[in-house]
Design goal:
Distance between the termini of chain B: 41 Å
Number of helices of chain C: 18
Strand order of the largest sheet of chain B: 1-4
Structural class of chain B: mainly alpha
Oligomer: heterotrimer
Strand order of the largest sheet of chain C: 6-9-10-3-11-12
Strand content of chain B: under 5%
Chains: A mainly alpha, B mainly alpha, C alpha/beta
Order of helices and strands of chain B: HHHHHHEHEEHHHHEHHH
Distance between the termini of chain C: 34 Å
Strand content of chain C: 25-35%
Largest interface: A-B, 51 and 50 residues
Helix content of chain C: 25-40%
Mean pLDDT of chain C: 86
């Protein structure tokens, strides 16, 4: 029997096949192209604004990642995102403190996640269907709660979330970084995180080994709801308002970030830093397309094409993904 | 009576949603006088026709075990294609419609290729196409709304046959029938269900499962294109933003219609009824002056209710079978 | 005699239509390495599946360390220290070695929330090293060889304090060198007092590793041999003699001209396979599990890539890239895995029967109700398939009737060569006899038939000629007349 010591050059190979490789590769290529063809791309302020605006998507992607690893999917996070913003705005309007408002919003997110988890884990319904139904329910709730009106927020402490700069870096970026570190520790260090991978790898085998797979999934959906709510709060602070349609379509951006970050949609694979890089890639791509003066008309096509290209490359590199 | 029972057994997956439809019709009729009128019922049918046509195509894809998230973009692309060809290029209406349908079919073919040849999962492949095709529609139209005045084109969406039945309704109902017959009565239908039910066993039986899957994606693309044409014709204009988010309505109709995401189970009839049920809910709430905000909420609830009942039915059935078997064994050993 | 770790008495397990275990007794001592042999269907897997907690509806008494025990779930089995190492390993390719070893049982810190990676790596490293395995605990599992994965699974079993490890054909995908390492591990386990049940078709492994052997036949005990009584002849003597064909006699027939010719065929696994089959002839494929029976059928039917060699059917060379081509060339396959490859469970009997002959049943693409019903009714009556209604789901039929339906599906296409891969697998005795009659009749009607079976007696009962396979190549080609099971087993079991 042979040992499995990494051979010379193994490090390079490992780096090339690691989860984040593709996102990094994509970021470098897009940046190079954008720098060559655009004027303003390579400026610190531009980069900072991209990172800051993507930090919201990155936070959502962290939750989505945790759901995708055990083989699920959550497409209700866009609606949860909107619900959190509206709930916070409403409670601020009712005179609650920013902290209370934020806690209420987060509780809403957790409740949505709990409901998703119940249907997926207890009734064994396909996650896509469950979260599709939940998306409708939550979006409907927002309309009912807000009467479909946008609510403007003028509570300075609340808005400060978007404006504070700590150590030269805006707070949202810190929040995204913290979410990423938290998720990384959860996935790589915690018992639950480890079991999430096992459920995604072979649910039946995990159950045979005594893993309570339903509880693992439930937890993942709750965290996903919390992450979406947190992102919704960040966004509400940024735009100084809660819009009833806020977050529509964000679920897909978060899923794209996770997949570009090397996760497998069929579960069992993925990492938090890579998903964060995936979110960054999508932000840089969008920004580069604008900076490169690509006709506005083609932007979306180029965007979709680049994302699908990166995902295909990752599928090819990681071997046949069945 | 016997005929009904045997039909119900053969179409067990449809019975549930038909009952839901009947209950909703009854409910809204009791609650409002203006609901159960022929003009209102026709309005419901007209409103769901485009989604319904798309859902029929989606039904094929989900029955073979795939999914197409990109239908709403194809919807926009085909409308824009037809609009551009007619209004800007002066192409004749029949040619333009054919070209738009072909565009839809081509997108479907690309989907099929991506799924079958690159190893991408259907979710990811069609998800990428969703934004790509939307962008393409945007680029083609230059971001402008294209007005189409040609009578022969707008007739597809507006003409009332016999002053009563709008063309889109006829298209939807006719296609639902064609699909139901194709799926239940033709050899293609049998191959389709076989491919979705157990792709390996289907291939072992000499069925070219790859081609069956490919065809489902192509047909789905063509139908999404047709829906786009119907809608553009109804409005007299085409825009690249048309149909945004429709993929969710389409998939909802398919789920309500009893199609299993695991493939191999479902029917066109069920999906058509599923689309109509969505229309009834929207229309009924509107008529009863329930705020429109409740629509999405109630449709979401109905989805979860229908699938939960289904899941519990299966669970309950399994439990029942188990106890029966135990009891028989106990009697046998006694 | 006391001191057994595990004792089973009067074990009975029924499957629909069959008695898989019939009053079986079994026992094993702590630290004993015990062989379990018997032909396929003898009841070995059923017994170990009971031990693994796969069934909750068996009868009989189980004593573990002298105390009565109920094993109803895998968790029960694990709690008693019984762990099975199956051929399809239950490991997680996406996790590293240490995590695989400790999954569900992780060393923790920080109030049990966090994994104690250091402890996990240390413990895993210690366990691996104690077996002399040079595997880093951090290695992702999918980088390991099959043999290494197997070792990991054994190590995992030990992390649960396993006292009895069941190894089901553990050497089937190991090289000779790897078998030596496994031997070392088995000796190690023995030294730790762990009992091992070894299921294998390689009799020399029994001779090499085991102290005692249980022989099963037809779901019953067929003898227990102590080390001193071991000999290949005695093993084979115990295994053979299944009573299959008491009521069945093969018809004598004239074999017609050669229809199918296979010349020097090979792929990644098969090596230089050559044979001929004539019309009205049944060629039997004999060989242990994994000897290449299914692979030959697959290669003929367009299921695998052929790297060299030629197939000629009726003088015309064919190389089907897909089953649909093989079908058009005149081949038909009744596959080994009925559930996975034979039937489409949710579909009706009628649609399943029509799957391959849709071309005949349809006009302009429409399935003609009358023609289809005719085809189905003919098939049902010709093969005596017992159904209530053409529209009932095929999954609701018994295994035997499902299998007849699979055969009927192919007969409707009117093929020339039938490939029957273990056609009576998991079927009750009555229906088995019926299927023997059908196969014999089909040969008389002029079909060329290739028959493979995991039950040797069946091959001998039905075939005109027998091809004995061993690890992907033909070991011998024998006339079935007067051929005995002993002769074949001696060739197929190294």
């Amino acid at each position: 029997m042979t040992g499995t010591k990494p051979a010379a050059g193994g490090l390079l190979k490992r780096a090339a096949t690691s989860d984040s490789a593709l996102a990094v590769f994509g970021i470098v290529v897009v940046s190079l192209v954008a720098t060559a063809f655009g004027e303003h791309f390579l400026s610190f302020s531009n980069f900072e604004s991209v990172v800051k605006s993507q930090s919201i998507i990155a936070v959502m992607a962290m939750g989505e990642l945790l759901v995708i690893i055990p083989g699920g999917i959550d497409i209700s996070i866009g609606a949860t995102f909107g619900l959190a913003g509206s709930a916070a705005a409403l409670s601020l309007g009712a005179g609650h403190s920013p902290l209370t408002a934020a806690l209420i919003a987060l509780a809403c997110g957790a409740a949505v996640g709990l409901a998703n988890g119940f249907f997926v884990a207890k009734l064994n319904i396909v996650p896509f269907i469950v979260t599709l139904g939940m998306m409708g329910i939550v979006r409907g709730l927002i309309f009912i709660l807000t009467d479909a009106q946008s609510i403007y927020i003028d509570n300075p402490p609340f808005l400060a979330v978007d404006r504070i700069v700590v150590a030269w870096i805006p707070l949202p970026i810190w929040i995204a970084a913290a979410a990423c570190i938290f998720m990384h520790i959860l996935l790589s260090r915690s018992v639950l995180g480890g079991r999430a991978y096992a459920v995604g790898g072979d649910e039946e085998a995990a159950r045979m080994l005594g893993v309570k797979t339903g509880r693992v999934k439930m937890f993942c959906y709750v965290v996903s709801g919390l992450a979406a709510a947190a992102a919704g709060l960040m966004s509400a602070a940024k735009v100084e308002a809660a819009y009833p349609r806020a977050g529509e379509g964000y679920e897909f951006e978060a899923i794209a970030a996770v997949i570009v970050g090397g996760a497998s949609i069929t579960g069992g694979k993925g990492s938090a830093p890579a998903a964060a890089l995936g979110a960054l890639f999508i932000g840089i791509l969008k920004n580069a397309i604008i900076q490169m003066d690509i006709s506005q008309y083609w932007q979306q096509t180029v965007n979709g094409f680049a994302v699908i290209l990166v995902i295909m490359l990752s599928a090819l590199i990681s071997g046949r993904r069945r | 009576m016997n005929g009904i029972r045997s039909w119900m057994r053969k179409n067990a997956d449809v019975v549930g949603i038909i009952l839901v439809m009947a209950a909703l019709l009854l409910l809204f009729s009791l609650l409002s006088d203006s609901f159960f009128t022929s003009s209102n019922l026709m309005r419901i049918m007209l409103n769901v026709s485009a989604i319904g046509v798309m859902a029929l195509g989606e039904c094929l894809v989900i029955v073979i075990g795939g999914i197409d998230l990109g239908v709403s973009s194809v919807f926009a692309l085909s409308g824009v294609t037809a609009g551009m060809l007619i209004s800007r290029a002066g192409v004749g209406v029949p040619e333009a419609v054919l070209a738009a349908l072909a565009a839809g079919g081509l997108v479907g073919a690309v989907n099929g290729f991506l799924v079958l040849k690159t190893g991408l999962t259907p979710f990811i492949a069609t998800f990428g196409m969703l934004s790509m095709i939307r962008g393409l529609a945007y680029a083609l139209s230059g971001g402008y709304t294209i007005s189409v005045y040609k009578r022969s084109f707008t007739a597809i969406g507006m003409y009332n046959v016999g002053d009563a039945v709008p063309v889109p309704v006829i298209i939807f109902v006719a296609l639902a029938m064609v699909f139901q017959i194709t799926m239940k009565k033709t050899s293609y239908g049998v191959r389709l269900y076989a491919t979705g039910g157990n792709p390996a066993a289907a291939a072992y039986s000499g069925i070219r499962t790859g081609w069956i899957k490919f065809s489902a994606y192509v047909v789905c693309g063509v139908l999404a294109g047709l829906a786009g044409i119907m809608s553009a014709a109804k409005l007299g204009m085409a825009a690249s933003t048309a149909g945004m988010g429709y993929e969710m309505d389409v998939i909802t109709a398919v789920i309500l219609g009893g199609v299993s995401f695991n493939g191999g189970v479902g029917s066109a009839l069920g999906v058509a009824v599923g689309a109509v049920v969505m229309g009834i809910i929207r229309n009924g709430l509107l008529i009863m002056n329930v705020s429109a905000y409740y629509q999405t909420l109630i449709i979401g609830l109905v989805i979860l209710l229908v699938v939960s009942l289904d899941a519990m039915k299966e669970k309950g059935l399994a439990k029942l079978l188990l106890t029966l078997r135990r009891r028989r064994r106990r009697e046998g050993s006694a | 005699m006391g001191g057994y770790f595990l004792e089973m008495k009067s074990m009975v397990k029924r499957f629909p239509g069959t008695l898989a275990l019939d009053q079986v007794a079994f026992n094993i001592r702590p630290g004993e390495t015990l062989g379990l042999i018997g032909e396929n269907g003898a009841g070995k897997s059923t017994l170990v599946n009971i031990l693994g907690g796969a069934f909750s509806d068996y009868e009989g008494e189980i004593l573990v360390e002298g105390k009565p025990a109920r094993i109803l779930t895998p968790t029960d089995a694990r709690a008693l220290g019984i762990v099975g190492i199956r051929q399809e390993l239950s490991l997680f390719p996406n996790l590293n070695v240490a995590r695989n070893i400790f999954l569900g049982n992780e060393p923790r810190k920080a109030c049990g929330l966090l994994l104690d990676h250091d402890a996990m790596a240390r413990e895993a490293g210690r366990l691996l090293a104690s077996f002399g395995l040079d595997i880093s605990p951090e290695t992702p599992l999918d980088r390991l060889t099959v043999a290494q994965k197997q070792m990991v699974e054994i190590v995992r079993a030990l992390s649960y304090n396993a006292k009895l490890i069941i190894m089901d054909e553990p050497t089937s995908s190991l090289t000779e060198k790897e078998v030596d390492i496994l031997a070392g591990i088995m000796a190690d386990l023995k030294a730790r007092g762990v009992a091992i049940i070894l299921i294998t078709h390689k009799l020399n492994e029994i001779l090499r590793f085991c102290e005692r052997v249980f022989i099963f036949r037809d779901g019953r005990n067929a003898g227990v041999l102590e080390k001193g009584e071991f000999s290949r002849d005695r093993f084979i003597e115990g295994m053979v003699g299944r009573d299959l064909g008491a009521a069945f006699r093969r018809t004598r027939r004239e074999v017609g001209e050669v229809l199918l010719e296979v010349e020097n065929l090979g792929d990644g696994f098969l090596k230089n396979i050559s044979f001929k089959v004539g019309t009205g002839e049944i060629l039997g494929l004999a060989g242990a599990v994994g000897a290449g029976r299914t692979e030959i059928m697959g290669a003929l039917f367009g299921l695998g890539k052929i790297s060299y060699g030629r197939i000629r059917l009726g003088g015309k060379e064919i190389s089907p890239p897909h089953p649909s081509f093989a079908m058009r060339a005149g081949l038909a396959l009744v596959p080994e895995e009925r559930k996975a490859h034979g039937v489409i469970q949710g579909m009706s009997v009628r649609d399943n029967l029509l799957l391959s002959s849709l071309g005949n049943a349809a006009r302009w693409g429409f399935v003609r109700g009358g023609a289809a019903s005719g085809i189905v009714a003919d098939a049902v009556s010709a093969l005596n398939i017992r159904i209530a209604d053409q529209h009932q789901a095929i999954g609701s039929l018994s295994g035997g009737n499902q299998q007849k339906a699979v055969l009927a599906k192919w007969l409707a296409v009117k093929p020339r060569v039938l490939l029957l891969d273990d056609p009576t697998r998991g079927i009750d005795v009555g229906t088995k006899r019926e299927i023997y009659g059908i196969i014999d009749r089909l040969a008389n009607e002029g079909y060329a038939i290739i028959l493979s079976s995991s039950e040797l007696a069946e091959v001998l009962l039905l075939s005109d000629r027998v091809l004995v396979l061993y690890e992907g190549s033909v070991k011998a080609e024998l006339d079935a007349d007067g051929l005995t099971e002993e002769q074949v087993l001696a060739l197929s079991h190294a």
